[in-house]
Design a protein that fits this description.
It is a single chain. The protein is α/β, with parallel strands linked by helices. The chain is 38% helix and 14% strand. The chain has 22 helices and 19 strands. The strands form four sheets. The chain has a seven-stranded mixed beta sheet, with helices on both faces. A five-stranded parallel beta sheet has the order 1-2-3-7-6, sandwiched between helices. Helix 9 (288-300) crosses helix 10. The longest helix has 26 residues, at 25-50. The chain is elongated and about 100 Å long. Bound molecules: thiamine diphosphate and magnesium ion (MG).
């Protein structure tokens, strides 16, 4: 069904600074039309929610139109970047798409831009740089920073619009991103939509240093101003236009505290009992829309404004009917679409073998060099990875040889830096981010598991990202520098995971992870970085790292492992072969997600016995999934209960004696298997 043609008043979605000195009738009517449409749509959405026709949570933008409509009209939608909040329906309507698309999102029907996989206003338009919000407040700002920087790196004079509420302004991500944007000198307009409340909490309970939230900017070396968007709409528009022009010209971030309103409480169900007496009336009296209407009616005649409203309302009703008649969604390819489809192999240059054998750290360095040399969209970021070469020297001399901004030291801000990388990835760059230790990835857990990992499922956008995670223990680094976090992260859908155990596999894994269109966690065991040196060659079959590798062939049992434990398993298997004349199929899993178990299934079917070995903790550990999958399929063929060898269910203890007692060691592996065999 064709979507109805919008009224002529909505034909233009732009306002230019030149037009604002003394705004034309056209410009004023345009502002009014979009404000009226946004208000009416929010009101009708609330009605339909109350009728049970819309589910989820309806957080209306009634009262916020005087902020978001001017801003969205002023943005250059051809190059700029935005992430709208839950009060910004007007912004979505202006930025892209047809009203019906946006209504379909609310009805969660078959026409929904998120394929009904996300609710209410959690949509965007990544192809047009409108980055879809997730619920977690504050977490979108760094994505705007990344995509805007990506635009600038591509030579486009873009500005990013990072919108967040007064409540959201208290989150750590906001602090991290303001600092990052200032450090990198990114042209971002940060807008605090200060409506005085976060759910029931007044602003004075968010910020100890008074209620003037713009003052936060001084701490980051950022300019700031406050704009009252409940006043004269034309004046608000002029102030925003000047601010945007300055940010575009200077490429410096700016923080705007925009005073705005929340006319309907927090959400549809909010009874606002917590408001002081008379507060509701005071808020309603500040609404700029009726005043703007009266001003236009006085200047242009009541009949003209009433006619405009009639036309806009009729358009809205037609669109609502269409959206209501759109079929309900079906699961479709929901399961497959958690991941972006496989990408074609990149045209890597075949190269001579490395002149000398390499250890894992050197092999990764070689692969990063190859990526940086051959792929202009690549960049490498992380803490101390520049001149210092990274905590484990994996990025040694990359800065010297490739320079900034391809090789980028980041501040100590894992969450914002990961969000920044996601933003870069959404705009066509391909970042490789080093975490100093895998343990610190928990600081970025929301960005990794919710923002990046769900992106393709809910927004259809590829998020090609390599997260390098130096992990694992045995080095007396204690609880916070030794963990194996694969089962923690990979239980979340949308993430891929590779865990190489040899220099060649590490080299191949960087290339395979790099060209994947999904976020890939690259687990790098710290004890393997310098374990031994072996030849590393250009391997046209580098993509085979997504499959398990048969390390050693045998008949008695199938032993599945990965990471450093591959070497311990191999030694244990050699021992059993020589001392017991008992042989094992030993598999190095290499890819932890997605799991490709065909070869292992065949092996278990043949041997009838299964051992799973890993360094991480046992309970909820990765081995539980392996044992379950392999047992489900081969229960009837198994001659013994599967054996799981893993670490104790403890934080990683510090002293070497305690850590050895905690994790699988060669002796424990041999003893446990021998006992199981007996
Ligand atoms: C990190 C996080 N914590 C809690 C919530 C639950 N929550 C949703 S909206 C909201 C209030 C937000 O207030 P504010 O940022 O001022 O935006 P407003 O709703 O006033 O526009 C809260 C607490 C959330 N979405 N994210
Ligand atoms: Mg608020």
């Amino acid at each position: 069904m064709a979507f109805p043609t919008p009224p002529a008043l909505l034909a233009a979605r732009e306002l230019r600074g030149a037009d604002l000195a003394s705004p034309s009738t056209d410009s004023l009517l345009r502002l009014f039309a979009w404000m009226h449409l946004a208000r009416s749509a929010d009101n009708r959405i609330l009605d339909l929610f109350r009728q049970g026709l819309i589910r989820g949570t309806v957080t209306g933008g009634q009262g916020n139109e005087g902020l978001i409509v001017p801003l969205a009209l002023l943005a250059d939608k051809a190059i700029d970047v935005v992430s709208f909040t839950h009060r910004d329906l007007g912004g979505h309507l202006i930025w892209s798409g047809h009203l019906v698309d946006h209504l379909n999102q609310y009805f969660a029907n078959a026409g929904s831009p998120t394929k009904a996989r996300e609710g209410n206003i959690h949509h965007g338009d990544p192809a047009n740089r409108s980055l879809p919000m997730i619920s977690h407040l504050g977490s979108m700002l760094s994505l705007v920073a990344g995509s805007t920087d990506s635009q600038r790196r591509l030579g486009r004079p873009a500005v990013g619009f990072a919108l967040f509420g007064d409540g959201g302004s208290s989150t750590g991500d906001v602090h991290e991103t303001l600092n990052l944007a200032s450090l990198l000198s990114l042209p971002i307009v940060f807008v605090i939509e200060n409506n005085g409340y976060a759910y029931s909490t007044p602003t004075c309970e968010q910020f100890a240093a008074g209620t003037e939230l713009w003052k936060r900017a001084a701490g980051y070396g950022i300019e700031a101003l406050a704009i009252d968007t409940t006043g004269d709409v034309a004046e608000t528009t002029r102030l925003f236009a000047a601010a945007i022009a300055k940010v575009r010209a200077t490429s410096r971030p700016l923080l705007i505290e925009a005073r705005t309103l929340r006319l309907r409480g927090h959400a549809a169900y909010d009874t606002c009992d917590y408001l002081p007496p008379g507060e509701n009336d005071r808020i309603a009296a500040c609404d700029p829309l009726p005043r703007f209407r009266a001003q236009l009616a006085a200047a242009l005649g009541e009949a003209r404004i009433a006619a405009a409203e009639t036309e806009l309302n009729a358009f809205l009703e037609t669109c609502l009917k269409l959206a209501l008649a759109t079929p309900r969604p079906t699961p479709g390819d929901m399961v497959a679409e958690v991941f972006a489809p496989p990408a074609p192999a990149l045209p890597w240059q075949p190269e001579p073998a490395a002149p000398t054998p390499l250890n894992v750290a050197q092999a990764i360095n070689l692969a990063l060099r190859k990526v940086l040399r051959e792929r202009p969209e690549s960049l490498v970021l992380g803490q101390d990875i520049g001149t210092y070469g990274g905590a484990f020297k994996v990025t040694e001399h990359l800065l010297r040889d490739f320079g900034r901004p391809r090789v980028l030291n980041t501040p100590l801000a894992e969450s914002a830096c990961t969000g920044y990388a996601i933003g870069l990835a959404l705009n066509g760059h391909r970042p490789i981010e080093e975490f100093q230790f895998a343990d610190f990835a928990t600081e970025a857990a929301t960005q990794i598991t919710l923002n990046a990992a769900t992106m393709h499922f809910r927004a259809g956008a590829a998020c090609p990202l390599v997260l390098r995670l130096p992990c694992g223990g045995g080095l007396t680094f204690g609880s916070f520098h030794s963990q194996e976090l694969e089962s923690f992260f990979l239980s979340m859908p949308g993430l891929k995971g590779l865990y190489p155990s040899t220099p060649q596999d590490a080299f191949n894994a960087v290339l395979a992870a790099y060209e994947d269109n999904n976020p890939v966690l690259l687990f790098e065991h710290k004890a393997l970085y310098r374990r031994s040196r072996t030849p590393v060659v250009w391997d046209p079959h580098y993509r085979d790292v997504w499959q398990p590798r048969l390390v050693r062939h045998g008949d008695f049992a199938t032993l599945v492992t990965y990471g450093e434990m591959v070497h311990l398993a191999d030694e244990a298997a050699a021992y059993f072969a020589s001392e017991y004349e008992t042989t094992f199929d030993v598999f190095d899993l290499r890819a932890l997600a997605p799991l490709r178990l065909d070869a292992i299934h065949a092996s278990v079917a043949r041997t009838g016995r299964l051992i799973v070995l890993h360094e991480g903790r046992r309970t909820h550990g990765f081995g539980a999934e392996l044992v379950a999958r392999l047992t489900e399929r081969h229960f009837a063929q198994l001659k013994a209960a599967p054996l799981r060898i893993a670490a104790l269910d403890l934080p990683v203890p510090f002293a070497p004696e305690l850590e050895q007692a905690f994790r699988p060691t060669p002796e424990k592996i041999i003893d446990t298997i021998a006992a199981w065999m007996a």
